[in-house]
Amino acid sequence: PAAGMDVRDPPGLYRTLLSIQHPASLVRKRARSMEKKPMTDKAVSESASTLPRGTLILVGTPIGNLGDLSRRVIEVLAQVDLIAAEDTRRTRQLLSYLGLHQPLTSYHEHNQASKGLELIEKLRSGQSIALVSGAGMPCISDPGGRLVAECVAADLPVLVIPGPSAAVTALAGSGLETERYAFEGFLPADRKARKARLLELQKELRTMVLYEAPHRLKKTLQELIGLGFGDRLVALGRELTKKHEEFLRGTVQGLADYYETNEPRGEFVIVLEGLTALARRLPDHATVTGGLGQAGCQSDGTADAAALLKQLLGQGLSVKEAAREAAAQTGSKKNELYALAIQIQENEPGES
Ligand code: SAM
User: Fold this and answer.
1) Per residue in 186-210, pLDDT tens?
2) Closest atom of ligand 1 relative to the 237 alpha carbon
3) How close is the Cα of 64 to the center of ligand 1, in Å?
4) CA dist 183 to 166, 171, 306, Å?
5) Element (H, E) at 236
6) Alpha carbon distances (Å) from 178 to 136, 159, 205, 337
7) Does the reported pTM lie above 0.85?
8) Which of 222, 268, 280, 326 has most Cβ atoms within 10 angstroms of its Cβ?
């Protein structure tokens, strides 16, 4: 199996499963059943044995545990004309684990312009092509988005065979607000752009989901503390679906302290509390310095948006009026203040 892939499910056991529904036998069975009666549209769309021609198929692969490979994923990989892989070595290992030998070609960040043209030509000629990333879902902090856009522009069909994604896996288990979330992927590596992004995130109302490399985790937690995120709740999803998977939960400050004496190892997703949940938990804390100021002006400390809203609501203004008034006074966005005002009101209904 590929490096980083967890083979806790012994291949023997997995192969037993496959021998019941091995891709090749599935294909034969499907072919036989098709001889008997025509398939409905629904059955056709559900069947990988009738792969649509000239279609780009985005295939989600495990983020660690090979047991997460779905039957549909295996069927599709067994039948496409070509697999475009971000990491051909890793995908070849996956294929050989499955006993498959489909032709592979590389499609990654550095060849996507030229390779995209080639793949579009092949799709036009009727080939079905699977796009597979190193792990998880293609297009999610992985190559593919550009190719999908090119297919859409060329009027070529795109199909998605969903698989795990570290972001959603971490979000689901985070214990933080999941109603609304913002996927941020990796923060920019460039220092200035990174700071600008973090300043933007100070004002983010929704739960945030970020990817981070282990060697940068400590620094990122410190950067977050430096920008006033120290009291935010955070959940770190580490090595998800693998042997040593765990969630580390606490405040940003608490986890930064923990990593003072523990070296971060493995793959991490950072799930970070947004301003709405923070305002609900610590209404007095969601100040301009906590992120409701104008972009770039978070540290002037002149206005306390939450306190101001509380005061205005206490004076009998409606949520809408309070948000409008607070926006006029602080220069913050009215819709952000509106959301905060709703949270404050829900938290302290007697105040309005
Ligand atoms: N396309 C992938 C997806 O759908 O999740 C993400 C690819 S991105 C290049 C790789 C990053 O995803 C890692 O640096 C890490 O932040 C996160 N990641 C991937 N697998 C993970 C796992 N098993 N546990 C925790 N984080 C993981």
Assistant:
1) 999 999 999 999 999 999 999 999 9
2) 25
3) 9
4) 11, 10, 25
5) strand 233-238
6) 20, 27, 12, 20
7) no
8) 326
